[in-house]
Amino acid sequence: MTTHRQFVRKISNRVGLSVVDTQNNVSVFIDELLDCANNGGVRIGGLGKFYVNYSNPRLIKPPKSPTIILIKRKKVLKFIPHQKANNYVKSSKYNSKS
Predict the structure, then answer these.
(1) What span, in angstroms and rounded, lies between the C-alpha atoms of 50 and 41?
(2) Closest CA to 75 of 24, 26, 39
(3) Does the pTM of the predicted model rise above 0.90?
(4) What are the pLDDT digits (tens) for 38-67?
(5) Per the count of CB atoms within 10 A, which of 12, 61, 65, 84 is most buried?
C-alpha cells in the first residue's frame, strides 16, 4: 500500500510542483472532498461517488455479557466506484496478493 508521503511524491514528480506545494494541494483536495461528501455527496468522473450515510441504531448482546447494549446511529463514509475505476482495477495484472 502506498503511504501518504509516497502518494504526494508521485504527484509532485508527475506535475512538476514542489513536495510542499503538492502536499498543500492534496490536503485541500481531501478536505474539500470530505466536506462535500458530508454535505450531500460528491461525484468525481472516472473515480466514483463519495457520500455520508447513516447506520441504523441497533441492539447487540456481547457474548460474555448478559446485558443488551444500544449502538447509536452513526455517520459512515461511503464510496461507490465509477465503472471506469472498476474496470481498471479488474483488468490490472496485480489481481491477487500473491
Answers:
(1) 6
(2) 39
(3) no
(4) 999 999 999 999 999 999 999 999 999 889
(5) 12
